[in-house]
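Following up on my earlier message about pyridoxal-5'-phosphate. Here are the inputs again, as you asked, copied directly from the submission form:
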Amino acid sequence: MSSEHFPIPFNRPSLAGRELEHLQKAVAAGHISGDGEYARKCAGFLSKRCGAGAVMLTPSCTAALEMTALLLDLRPGDEVVMPSFTFVSTANAYALRGAVPVFADIRPDTLNLDETRLEEAFTSRTRAVVVVHYGGVGCEMDAICRAAALRGLAVVEDNAHGLGGFYRGRPLGSLATMAALSFHETKNLSCGEGGALLLHDSSLVEQAEIIRDKGTNRRKFLSGAVDKYTWVGLGSSYVMSDLLAAYLWGQLECMDQIMQRRKVLWNRYAEGLKSWAEKSGVQLPVVPAHCASAHHLFYLLLPTPQARGRFLDHMRSHGCLAVFHYQPLHLSPMARNRSGFRPLPVTERVSSCLARLPFFTGMTDAEQARVMEAVEAFRP
Ligand SMILES: *Cc1c(COP(=O)(O)O)cnc(C)c1O
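Thanks, got it. Here's what our run produced:
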């Protein structure tokens, strides 16, 4: 069987450059726990790219989101407004503190939190707003931050998709008090499992250091500020191993090439599928003029859920794995127990009509051509 008959996967991780060399160096240096040389390199790089005062590498984006929930000192019954069209971790991190996720609808164009729906989601118990830059396209942060500031609410960016993207010339991940990044295998830059917390308010740094170090003031001890370290607050084990940071550094060194390749692939899908999409009543991703996308994923919005189902089958039969995306959180069993239920029509439609095409940095031109040929052979 020729390789042509193997299905094109939805995602395939690939080495960008010197990841394995850095891993060996970390081992040879004898520092494989957290906060080693590679963690410092990665944090310095991310701090520059995201204009962040402080960067802490974490074992995942989920862990970084949990840190934001601890930093916000949320209490049971506090409410956090967020999209329903997102990954479970966005809600779970706050629910773990006893807070109630309150789900707001998304815009039909960018599929980001709809800033005009925030007011109706706010109550006297609202403490924070969490935004997700879906696919790497910025939310309407000016309006969202203004609405939050009027009520004294914190804003957190779940920037799992957005590293490398911009909103009005400012990096995604730099637009609120705190942001979380993901380096999961499926994300633009990866070390298998990993993440980072970005802090833009220096008054949060000391508390964040306590939280990540199991609730201890170990950081102060290491810097000589205290002569022993002890339990001083709530915390957990939120530090990334330097083995993973070494791998991540190999990716970050190549960030510009990775982003450039994703841009080429993304634009080719967008331009190549344009006339097919128009004829077929399919909506392609929308990137507003004031946003530069991080090109995290490429999706199609089919006209109906039935067409989406047929499309996924069609792609599979042509050897390409296209997949659906988020199941709306407001319809999940957990949310129905905790958050009550309000219909979110745009979220429900988008979730049932959206299909993601195979899209990954290591995708070859030939693979992409095969995917596009298969897409164009589909009639909704
Ligand atoms: C992937 C993802 C996460 C979770 O990332 P992990 O690093 O796997 O914890 C959180 N939020 C969004 C929007 C994601 O896409």
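One observation from looking it over: The first strand starts at residue 54 and ends at 58. Hope that helps, and feel free to reply on this thread.
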